[in-house]
Specification:
The chain is mainly beta. The strands form five sheets. It has a 21-stranded parallel β-sheet that branches. It folds into three domains: 70 residues; 175 residues, no CATH class; 196 residues, 3 Solenoid (Pectate Lyase C-like).
Amino acid sequence: MEKSTKAMGGAGGPMNAQAQALANRTEAIKTFYTVSVRHFGAQGDGRTNDDTARASAESKSSSVYWPEGTYLLDQAPDIEKSWGAGVCLVGDARVYLRPHPERATSIKAEAFGLPADHATDASGPLQRAIDLAQSLGLPVELPANAKLRLAKGLVFKHGQAASGDALTYLPRLISNGATLYPMPGVTAISIVPRCLLADASSNRGNARIEILGKLTFDGSLGDATSAALAIGKSGYFCSSLEWNRIDDILAAHFPSGSTVVTFTETRHYEINRLVIFSGGMRLQASAPGSFCGDMVFNTYEGQGSKTYPPLALVASGGAAGNPSMVRGIRFANGTVYGAGTVLLATGNSQLGDIWMSDIQFDSGASEKGECALEMVASGSGATLINVKVSSPYFAGYRAPAVFAHADNNATFMNVDVTDLYANTMFLGNYGDNNQNAAIVMLGIGGMNVSGGSMSSIHGDGASSCIVNVIGSKRIKVESLNVIGTDGVVDGVTIGKGDSDSYVITNNLMQVSDAVVNEYGSGSPNRIIANNMLVTA
């Protein structure tokens, strides 16, 4: 193989480790010329040991043809060089060869001896297939519609460590409709970055992730500690300038009290059709200077509880002047079953630039105090900013549809909820902090609720209201149409003594007492106009 001067490290110079590894990879996935193992003395009669012929053929050529026959070997043939109709046996194990000599486009996992059904652990041969595929920069390909039990999790390396890695590892999987069954305590697939966060500027942490072809994770053989997919690692850099692509994933039969998909300090994803029938998803950053985000989710479905949210975005663990960040995430056309979707920033962290559009929040079985969407900034240095929730649908909750709150000098601002629809909500002292309302704003510094309709809102007949504003500033509530209520006393309840700079206009509400109930004493800056109280 000719080597360029550049690859050689300069005229007459030695090839550096990375250039050598790249050259080896290129060599391994090409077919230059073919020899037959029979030319080197192989018999293929099922009785003679043909290992010497194998070794000789592989040492002379990058493509070795195995004619029809049965070859007894001491060592498996080079899977990349070997092809043909021959049957290769190493002891009692058969090594499968590709039938044609074309350049390899993927590594077939079945060549490593996968079990016939999911009654037997397949993690060993699958991991060997992954390791080979990653060494060659190729995707590993699962058999069509295979059912594979995992007693150990599968690990894909990502990127390149500052020392010790000659190549950049690319996690690539072609699923072909396969189903993975993680056992108790097993995460089916982990994508583990090699590049430390401190080396992010080196470009070693940029490597495209691809999971394509309909992959199902089935938790029926696992327990509450089992999981489907974990990408990223705290303190490491995991990204792709080309954007990572994950398509058509289903996770089912996991315990509802579990988080089955986790993204940790990783970025640049386009994710199409991610469905979690049981358990939830968490996106998180928890190291100083870390970042999780720049993601687009098209058609997400999740199901969980307040303890294990169907969807959680969590920024924590930053340092003063070096915050952790969860930012730049878009959700479109999704469904969330269950309570507790949370956006949370704590300590020296930032959470923001979040878009959620056309999401259905549905929970006919939520417990008291389990709201649909909770947005929280907690602690000095925490910031929640620039969150846009458009055209959401809320149904069946026994607590607020939206609960926005901040404490201890945290920053909470520039949050919009627009064109909402809420139906069949049950209010009535179901939570702390005066949550007896469909929307609660507590201690925040900027939020708009604009446009939308509510119906079948059920209150306690004593203190229930549609919107409750407590100790908040820069608040706007406008153009809400609320009908079909019972036991709801007021439209918007707000304290004049602890809230300031609010606008409440153009609301039409069917409640028993008043569209706007200002209580307490004070002279806040405010505009209250064009609100109408209606009867049934």
